[in-house]
Amino acid sequence: MKDNIANITRWILYLLLALSVIPGVLFYAGALGTELFINWAKVLLIIGVAVMVISPLYGFITNPQNIVKMLISIGMLVVVIVVAYALAGNDFTEYRLEELKTTAETSRLVGMGLFATYIAFGLTVLSILYASIVKLFK
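Predicted structure:
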C-alpha cells in the first residue's frame, strides 16, 4: 500500500512538472501574461503544500513509531528558521525601501529565507561529508 501511494504521488508530481513546462515556455516566449503565470505558480504551491502536509499524516497513520523522529526534524527546522531570522537584517535605507515599495520586515524575511537556505546547504554538505567519513572507517 505504501508503495502504491508513493507511486501515485510521484506520477502526479511528474504530471504537474510536465504541465508546468507549457506555461513556462509560453511565458518566456511572451505569449502568456504574468498574471496567469503567477496564478499557475500559486496552484502549484497549494498542491505542493497539500502533499507536504498529507504525506506525513498518512505516514503517522500507517507507522506511528516515526512521530518522534518527525517531531525532532520539525524542532530542528524551527531552530534553523529562528537562527536565520536572528542573522537576517534590513540593510536598506528608508529611501531605498520606499523606492523598492517594500518594508523593513519584508526585507528581513527575505534575508531570513536566504540565511535558512545557506544553513540548509551547509548542513547538507556536512551530512554528506560525515556519511562519507563514517563509510570509510567501516
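Summary: The first helix runs from residue 2 to 29.
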